[in-house]
Amino acid sequence: QVQLVESGGGLVQSGGSLRLSCAASGDTVAINHMGWYRQAPGKQRELVATTTSGGLTRYGDFVKGRFPISKDNAKNTVYLQMNSLKPEDTAVYYCYADVVGLGPDYWGQGTQVTVSS
Fold first, then answer.
1. Residues 90-106: pLDDT tens digits?
2. DSSP string computed for 41-98
3. Alpha carbons within 13 A on the beta-carbon side of 22
4. pLDDT digit string (tens) for 53-82?
5. How far apart, in whole angstroms, are the C-alpha atoms of residue 28 and residue 91?
């Protein structure tokens, strides 16, 4: 089992920045990938960014270099630095961990990000 605890969401003005953190505990040696999805009201959950234990990264098309993802393997924590935020980035952001290699196996509780215009 893996537990994920997120922090760092909140309210920010358009153009501002936020940093999300996700700390993993439990069977962390089994984790292949960690990353973030988001879900806006009335929309499907979509991939924001993912990183492997080896440091490979992948991003959703809408990120366009604004949200670099990083991971501190010693702390089992993944970070999402969100820059140049737009109102359309408003969503609940969910951290996930992939153990089996077929997609998210564990989810965090979600953290709300609201960007005002």
1. 999 999 999 988 889 99
2. TTS--EEEEEEETTS-EEE-TTTTTSS-EEEETTTTEEEEEE-S--GGG-EEEEEEEE
3. 30
4. 788 999 999 998 999 999 998 999 999 999
5. 27
Task: Compute the half-sphere exposure of residue 14: CA atoms within 13 Å on the CB side of its CA.
Answer: 5
Cα separation, 25 vs 1, in Å, equals: 9
Contact 46, 60 (CB under 8 A): yes
38 is written with which tokens?
A: 């988001």
Token pair listed for 110: 């979600």
User: Residue 116 CA to chain centroid, in angstroms?
Assistant: 20
Contact indicator for 60, 48 with CB cutoff of 8 Å:
yes
pLDDT for the residue 103? 86
What is the amino acid identity at position 103? G
Find the distance separating the first CA and the last CA of the chain, reported in whole Å: 40
- Amino acid of residue 62: F
